């Protein structure tokens, strides 16, 4: 059997092993994926470097955690090559409580790390076809697969004050023949649901293959991060301001439906969704909703058209108000949202040449209709419901966004009409 097929067979075998083993006795099993096009409107979205991932995280009653990560890396700029990694590790936390509000946790970990040609090109291009993006065909940088040992530990100190938590974390890992990492971070957490923080990641490359230069350089140094946890959905996002590289992920806890229903009222809500404009460009939204007050970001990125050297990265950060005239028991629930803020237009060519960088004032209105009762779908302490939405965004002073590209002229028009599907998750914080 050819070496590439051996690598793919090994990858599939490990994935099947993990898929069978993980649910056995686990209290939660989060399966997810990550990508560098999750930008929240920041950075340049070069769509190169750390390009794709599949992950699984199982937690057990004993505290033991099993982590599985399959990652794809590309370098379209310099070497025109790609490589993949697969890691499988176990971690166990040892916790100490010198004070009722103070916790110290040390979590050693160990596992195995594979690198080389794991056959991820086909999987990444399948995702690109689904998303309508250009497929990426690159030469594999490594022949075959190397198996190496992973060792490391995480240490965290946290101070809890009611529903709020402050923490400091140090994480160190090493794969002696591949890479070592030292990650220092400070974080703020609300109800173990929302986390924001700042960190510094130092990476030490032991392999020194030119194909790794891009991905290592993108994600090291100072970074900002956030994460969101609900009984069913988990998301995370990070950006390195110095390089403009960002990375986001989302996952689903496939064991969440076994949790008892504890939702009674909505204290805080999160909003996420996907829209399309009349030209077929996709826009995504993430937001927080508290007693009608709305804080949200809309963002869109990718080439101006398939195969084009020009790439757009649009971000709109806004505050507003959402009004629902009917009670939660109504089946068809109309809603109106008004919002205003700033909209960023970023246009680059060939990954690095900036053509346009502008931040302009913008306003918007959205009309939606919920298709079921607000509390019809409950998982744990959260209620999930969808709505169809039509939105109209207006950007002031958009005449300054001039570029010699007909597709960009459509993108930079002052008025944008969007049609989308939105998921709102209501959280009952009193059950924590």
Tally of domains: 2
Q: What overall form do the CA principal axes indicate?
A: globular
Low-confidence stretches: none
Please give the alpha-carbon distance between the first and last residues. 54 Å
Notes on the structure:
This protein starts with a helix and ends in a 5-residue tail after the last strand. It is built from 4 helices and 23 strands. It has 2 domains: 3-258, Porin (Beta Barrel); 268-431, Beta Barrel (Porin). It has helices at residues 3-21, 120-131, 213-218, 406-411, and strands at 26-35, 49-60, 65-75, 81-91, 94-99, 102-116, 139-140, 145-161, 164-175, 179-190, 194-205, 221-229, 233-240, 245-253, 268-277, 282-290, 293-303, 310-323, 333-349, 353-370, 378-379, 382-395, 415-427. The strands form 2 sheets. A 12-stranded antiparallel β-barrel has the order 1-2-3-4-6-8-9-10-11-12-13-14. An 8-stranded antiparallel barrel has the order 15-16-17-18-19-20-22-23. With 432 residues, the chain is mainly beta. The protein is 10% helix and 59% strand.
